[in-house]
Design a protein that fits this description.
Order of helices and strands: HHHHHHH
Bound molecules: heme C
CATH topology of one domain: Four Helix Bundle (Hemerythrin (Met), subunit A)
Strand content: under 5%
Number of strands: 0
Helix content: 55-70%
Structural class: mainly alpha
Length: about 160
Amino acid sequence: MRSKPITLLLASLMLAAAIAPAGAQQPPTQPLAGDAARASNPRLADLMEAAQLRHIKLWFAGKAANWKLAGYQTRQIKARLQEAASLYQSLAVNDVTTMAKPLDAVAAAIAAEDSKAFVKAYGELTAGCNSCHESVKLGFIVLQTPTVNPISDQNFAPAKKK
Ligand code: HEC
């Protein structure tokens, strides 16, 4: 015989299933277990693409002297690289930590609102990306300073002070 709590649990699970839209998976707030959790980890190449997008945005934010946006993009790049290092332990920690210096230099230039220092630090950051790619035999993945802004749905100009 089923105990009352279990019946209640089943009933609420059925209710949840009925409410959930067709094809809906677990709510994103629920942690997944085992293989599902592994499958839900972002792929390294996707984390890198996310870093690449921020690398582009950082440049155009810096060029526009939108220092708040530039600071935000720098933190995003740092977070993606940290995520990559923690999820993919095959990445040499050394390669990841060497990124701290150029990232700090970028952050310092942003804090000082110094366009010249920003350009220099951005070059060092990009060189850091490439030197890790070389060290993992992916020297054909070469980052450079973006030449055109492919992102037309985001305004990089600093918000007007009210
Ligand atoms: C610690 C080493 C390391 C650092 C630092 C690093 N990468 Fe990568 N990157 C990799 C590895 C490894 C791959 C290959 C991932 C794969 O294929 O699974 C990769 C792949 C890429 C790719 C190819 C993804 C694609 O689909 O085209 C891009 C773009 C990229 N990285 C951008 C960057 C940028 C931008 C930075 C610097 C902000 C950076 N990477 C810093 C290790 C690194």
